[in-house]
Specification:
Number of strands: 7
Order of helices and strands: HEEEEEEE
Number of helices: 1
Strand content: over 45%
CATH class: Mainly Beta
CATH topology: Jelly Rolls
Structural class: alpha+beta
Distance between the termini: 77 Å
Length: 128
């Protein structure tokens, strides 16, 4: 009887330790539509993507804050070479990419124990 209690206690301890050691995939907020993709997180350990619609002459602006971990970012129009591809981003940065061809652009963000934010927005300089 005593051995069964010890085994049950040991099993419970192992399960508890395993749960404590797991890293959540995402803890934060996400907003996305055809003009913006906003990620704010205290833990980002996964991949997320959003399609943005841009017209020729627009820009896709990025504002990335890295408070910990690292990010990889790719901006690509379907079937074409990426307009931007950054792996292992460990420092905050901001940049803009000029859009030469109207269409749908996919923003893909992958985090590795990342903390911070990644904001992408289509900025238009004329009427659509």
């Amino acid at each position: 009887m005593q051995t069964a209690k010890y085994l049950a206690g040991a099993a419970l301890l192992i399960i508890s330790l395993a749960a404590c050691g797991s890293t959540p995939a995402f803890n934060g907020s996400r907003t996305g539509n055809d003009e913006q993709f906003l990620l704010d997180y205290t833990m980002f350990n996964t991949t997320d993507s959003q399609e943005l619609t841009a017209q020729a002459g627009d820009q896709i602006r990025a504002d990335i804050t890295v408070d910990g971990g690292e990010l990889s970012v790719q901006i690509q129009k379907e079937g074409e070479e990426p307009l931007y591809s950054g792996d292992g981003i460990v420092a905050s940065c901001d940049f803009a990419i000029g859009i030469e061809e109207s269409g749908t652009y996919t923003i893909t963000v992958t985090g590795d124990k990342a903390e911070g934010s990644a904001h992408f927005e289509v900025v238009s300089f004329g009427s659509k």
